Amino acid sequence: MTQGIVIKSTGSWYDVFTTESRTVRCRLRGQLRLKGIRTTNPVAVGDKVEIVFEEGRNTALIVAIADRHNFIIRKATNLSKASHIIAANLDQALLVATIAQPRTSTGFIDRFLVTAEAYHIPAVIAFNKMDIYDVGELRQLGDLEEVYCKAGYQVLRVSALKGEGIQQLSELLHHKTTLVSGHSGVGKSALVNAVEPGLKLRIGEISEVHYKGKHTTTFAEMLPLSAGGWIVDTPGIKEFGLHDFEFETLSHRFPEMRDLLSQCRFANCTHLHEPGCAVKAALNEGHIARFRYENYLNMLHNDFSEDN
After folding, report:
1. What angle do CA 5, 6, 9 make, to 5 degrees?
2. Is 238 among the domain residues?
3. What are phi and psi of 293, to 5 degrees?
4. Do residues 74 and 32 make contact, with C-beta atoms less than 8 angstroms apart?
5. Which of 7, 82, 182, 220 has its CA 20 to 30 A from that of 233?
6. What is the C-alpha separation between 242 and 259, in angstroms, rounded?
7. Same domain flag for 91 and 200
8. Strand partners, 6
9. Which of 281-289's residues contact partners 24+ apart within 8 Å by CB, and which partners?
């Protein structure tokens, strides 16, 4: 029995990096598929597994999957009731966002942060393409930076093209397993290449029609850093539907709301229409960003309807 970590998933085949520093092509033993796993991918990048080599072949079978320390998940693309594990056993998550070309909506940012909070994964936001923003866009960035820093998140300003913030980003990634995510076209691959030039990831183009990125990554993959650590490179994600959340506790995933929960009149306050709500009071006094509260309402409305 050989132990290793799944570093790439391409449908029915997995690349496993073993404790002997060897990468082995593996497939899943049939019985493991029958254990009631309700995700589209029973094995995810980052999973620690045990493998057995197939007789007379260079391939192996995954025969056991260790318990996950954590994972990050989203709704499956085509099956609204199903889920897809993006990666497991993470130290942190890095969301690459842009103010323009393409614009990353705060709704997407907050869905990502809420998901990371739910699975106890520290999240960092890196605003890329600092070299292209005009005065108005820099003002927008400053406003967002203030809100997210106040909520307790680390925010970086980076430019893959000009090298701004790359040293700080490299230090952040050192000796950690970091999921890197964001919309297509925000420059994830360019940033990874700036940190680790030897990886030579393919960089996508921006569609001139809609200023949206073209996908360059199809499957999640763990990439080694020469200074120590791993980057989990993910496909460009269009939407981040919440999975397995409860209506009553969604606000707990917003740190600035969670901090006020004990001050609400009711312990199960949803911050909608209840009297004596400390969150609504803080909102009216400008201590909670209105867009964050509106994104919270949108999640309640779109992810907890009867259809979902």
Report:
1. 175
2. no
3. -65, -40
4. no
5. 82
6. 22
7. yes
8. 16
9. 282/256, 287/256, 288/256, 288/257, 289/147
Parallel, antiparallel, or unpaired for β 48-53 and 2-10?
A: antiparallel
153: CATH: 3.40.50.300
Confidence (pLDDT) at 234: 78
What whole-number distance in Å separates Cα of residue 16 and Cα of residue 3?
9
State whether 119 and 57 are in the same domain.
no
Query: CB-based burial of residue 113 (10 Å sphere; 0-12 exposed, 13-18 middle, 19+ buried)?
Result: buried
Q: How many of the other CB atoms lie within 10 Å of CB of 106?
A: 18
Handedness of CA 35, 36, 41, 47 (dihedral sign): negative
Segments forming the whole domain that contains residue 271: 247-303
Length of the chain: 308
pTM of the model: 0.86
Tokens of 140: 């927008």
- The alpha carbon torsion through 170, 171, 173, 174 (nearest 10 deg) reads 110
The SS3 assignment for 161 reads coil
Give yes or no: residues 57 and 79 share one domain.
no
Domain end call among 233, 267, 290 = 233
Contact assessment for residue 159 and residue 128, using Cβ atoms and an 8 Å cutoff: yes
Instruction: Note the pLDDT tens digit of each residue in 94-136.
Output: 999 999 999 999 999 999 999 899 889 999 999 999 999 999 9
Q: Which tokens hold the place of 59?
A: 């391939």
Residue 155's identity, in one-letter code, is V
